[in-house]
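Lab meeting notes turned into a lecture example. A postdoc, R.K., suggested we walk through two folding results consecutively so the class can see how the record format repeats. The first protein's sequence and structure tokens come next.
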Amino acid sequence: MRGWWRELAGLVAPVDCAGCGLPRSVLCEGCRGELGGRRARRVRPDPVPPGLPRVYASARYEGGVRSALIAHKERGGLALAEPLGAALAGAVEAAGRPGAGWDVRGWSGPLLLVPVPSARSAVAGRGHDAGRRVALAAARALRGSGVPARVAAVLRLRRPVLDQSGLDARGRAANVAGAMEAARGAERLWGPGGPVVLVDDLMTTGASLAEAARAVTVGDGRVMAAAVIAAAPRAFGNNRN
């Protein structure tokens, strides 16, 4: 029931720009440009956790981008899923350009976007699964540009984890170590050698993405890269193409 009310509120509530507060705009042109107006880039946390695949991000986690992500995830700004999904799609395409080692447009089968899972309690508290919602929007954007993408929400948390926000890099890595697993039958979705791109809204230390990559690999999946909407600003200074 709560999710239904959240959906309704996202459609009918008066809107101001989630990034800067400009009236009569879900996300103003300036904030859209901040979100996805630049070419997505490879980003690297410092230190890089073991097992982290190449990660690409469309924006820095600051200013209007930070406000928009928080508004979507924590405040029920559901209309933001489309622009956030478009930004995530840009990061997926950057992750799969030929210069990155593989070509997102060179696969005959579907490209599988695998969201990093959230705790059930967090999803219940928010009234929606923000990660899956944005992944679905990204898949729609990719299909619109000719990339046969689909979402495979097959990762699960096998044990409780703490809220990551108060933990440093070492604490985050320990918190999620061994916490994820692929659902039974996931291997039938991605198939032998099928391309998997991990997706999330944000990368700070990379611990969750590294754990997600481990879980996919253990489940016989092949992780080609990871893509996020935004990354911590310092991660942009550590990128190496």
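The second example is placed directly after the first for contrast:
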Amino acid sequence: MTDSIEFADDKRAFANSQQFQDIKTAAHEHLLARIEELGAEFGRWSRGAIQQFVDLEMDGFVRLRRIPINEAELRQISDALTKELAGFGPIEDLLADAAVEDILINGYNDVYVSRRGVLAREALRFSDNQHLLRIVRRILAPIGRRLDESNPMVDARLPDGGRLNVVIEPLAVDGPVVSIRKFRKDPLKPSDLLALGSFNEEIYNLLEAAVRSRCNILVSGGTSSGKTSLLNALASFIPATERVVTVEDTAELSLNHPHVVRLESRQGGFDGSGEVTIRDLIRNSLRMRPDRIIVGEVRGSEVLEMMQAMNTGHEGSMATIHANSPRECLYRLEMLAGFAGFQGSESSLRRQITSALDFIVQIGRLSNGRRRILSITEVTGVSDTVISTQELFRHESVVGPDGEEKDKWVSLGLQPHSPKLQRYKEQSRNAAAALQSQQGNVPPDSGGGGGFFGRRR
């Protein structure tokens, strides 16, 4: 075991050494000269054939130049060059790693990776900024997006569903800045999030009932808090007989539903022409006979169209928004509506928000990287020109006897206010009464109070 750890450490040390970069750069130039001799034939080779070609060329290259490296180091360089010629260079393994959520590159020798919500520096680097740009342009090539001095900022969706953002000079002062957000090939289901501890069984039951009862839900949270994953999971509760239209700036949602229409906004050209905004898409989606509209993220003037859709027969719609608390979420909605040119009074805007929204689900990433639902808040109306809410659940971290931090969700004992959940409230009361009867507290026909949710069968 110790030997294998030392071997892995030696590999990392060599891969990050200047010797590795110098040999790889010289060998890469040699390979490019050989590829030029081969011409178009090289473009038809498989990955395996390229690997074999690199191995043979590297063996001769090292012997002829008398480069002092051992067999393991030669293998490392050959693998790196194969990835360089047939893949995405130093980040190829990270792109293939299912545990990696984000890849953040701040110049050629500063790479950070997020796994399970925890960001850490990665022991890899590019040869220089030109090398980094070459790999980025290779990623962008199939998408048809341009990256140069006249267009120094690109935001694009990758073929596998991930998201790529690149900023280069002159906007990025210290070299190219690359942000890659990866998404799971098999989106998490509500049962997966329950097993991961994102919420408990009572919250599971409430969320399922809210979605099936066509409550309008806004998922609120900070960057990388799990908003999109939760929205994906909630959509699996939508009945299969309904038609769902998703509207996003960059398509990230992957709903587990049989009838989904996906719309994605389009940036304008160099002169600003041809732009199609989220607001345009939501307005158009109303003509597509949707049962529900799901907006990937509300961040601008589209907030007005979203609220109108929720108020005009598209109940059960959902969206995400950047906010640190349910109250801040409501403030942000008001602010965005003001920026969008809302013409009515402040009180009429708040009445429109309360009639559109039923629940705000606040999700966050804890200091240990775990993503948890922090609160579930119901929007109940307007009182004295202030939007009234009631918090049904609140997350608390408790420390067990062993010193380990554990999750706890506190039910505040309040019934949901929305008439859409009348059947659910009755089932909850009956389940609570039956549970108390089993415990010998009250007779089964008393209607019981106290308990809030029944257990999911």
